[in-house]
Amino acid sequence: MANPNQEIKYTQLFINNEFVDSVNKKTFVTSNPANGKKLADVAEGDKADVDLAVEAAKKAFARGSEWRNLDASARGKLLHKLADLIDRDSDIIASIESLDNGKPFIMAKADINFSSTVLRYYAGYADKVHGRTVPSDGNLFSYIRKEPVGVVGQIIPWNFPVLMLSWKWAPALAAGCTLVIKPAEQTPLTALYVASLSKEAGFPDGVINVITGYGPTAGAAIASHSDIRKVAFTGSTEVGKIIMEIAAKSNLKKVSLELGGKSPLVIFDDVNLDEVVQLAQDAIFINSGQICTGASRTFVQEGIYDEFVKRTVENAKTRKIGCPFNTDTLQGPQVDQDTFDKILNYIDYGKEDGAKLEIGGKRWGNEGFFIEPTVFSNVTDDMRIAQDEIFGPVQSILKFKTIDEVIERANKTNYGLAAGIFTNNIENALTFANEVEAGSVWVNCYNVFRSQVPFGGYKQSGIGSELGEEGINLYLETKAVSIKLPNKN
């Protein structure tokens, strides 16, 4: 059950299975974006705290440690136990998520449920990380081992706090790594709560560590730490480039990045508009538009363009915006003032560049960071709203004629995270899916994520894929062993 008055229990750093103050005793404020009011003072970690966390993680990963001596199946059982506890406390976690992030409670609850599903998926993978023997030339017996990378650093965003935590924790722990994670400074509270559950589940000291703080201090300390062997980051392309540079200059640690997007959704004239208008709007407006795969370029074939725009505007009028704890709310606030201001600036750019503002474009209400669902038509490829990632509830509708044309235009971007197509023509669907430059392609659906299916981006949308088998491979080293034998047999 949703609780808008949910108690905030955990605001300290989580190091070596204990909640502790930061070394410098500093704190920062995390606020409710629905009303701007303070939720809690949270410990502000920096390099000194990251050093302590890494030391705890190193000790937990040391040869002969409790964690290293656990059977792989036992790691799986711990992940199942953590998933059980998340399910038990899902209402509490979802309430905290809604308070700290602003997303509607019903959507936060769905995120929490998916998070436990991801943990269970990788729990099953823990004892299925298989090596293999290799029939090498000569009198040799050769085999391949898959081994955990070691201590890993993880930095997650504010738009899906618990979900992104599960995408990072689950494969790393299943592989046998230990970790230091930094949640976004805008949304630190649920990571700390789940950390408390990891202790209750029975994870050994030092395996999981949570450092709350800011990117330029705590985040940079994780990316540059010489004892961290791999860093995983989800966030903007701009910051991803910085992290990759820092990682390279420190100890050339492994890097996986899930970054920005400017995803195309292509709608052909053979679709049922009664269904597709709603699906296309959900594809960009979900999570207040704060989703990296959002269909921020909606390409509509010219024969249905005007009717599609008309119906889209009517649909936007009915989209319920308001308190995240109301059961009928579909859209909550943007996460903070900076995000709010950026989106409104891009709405101004759209008008300046000649797009037609069909609906929305303004602040909603008189408190918090709410923005009206916004729809632009007559958008062209050269406009800023068609090129840059806005990360808000702004739908840009572009017109196209042919499949060859729209594929060329869809690919004319530095991003390549996701793409979608709505059509009843299987030839068009397959041609688009095969030729669009994107890590995820959805046909007659959108924003469909499953634990078993890898997710990652092309071009400047990232490096590596999370979820599925690819997700656990991010946290594994490959070792080849060859033994000389007296004869081939």
TrEMBL record:
The active site is at E258. The keyword Oxidoreductase applies. Residues 20-481 form the Aldehyde dehydrogenase domain. It holds the Pfam family Aldedh. InterPro entries: Ald_DH/histidinol_DH (IPR016161), Ald_DH_C (IPR016163), Ald_DH_CS_CYS (IPR016160), Ald_DH_CS_GLU (IPR029510), Ald_DH_N (IPR016162), Aldehyde_DH_dom (IPR015590). Keywords: Oxidoreductase. GO terms for molecular function: oxidoreductase activity, acting on the aldehyde or oxo group of donors, NAD or NADP as acceptor. Belongs to the aldehyde dehydrogenase family. This is Aldehyde dehydrogenase domain-containing protein. It comes from Polypedilum vanderplanki (Sleeping chironomid midge). The lineage of its organism: Eukaryota, Metazoa, Ecdysozoa, Arthropoda, Hexapoda.
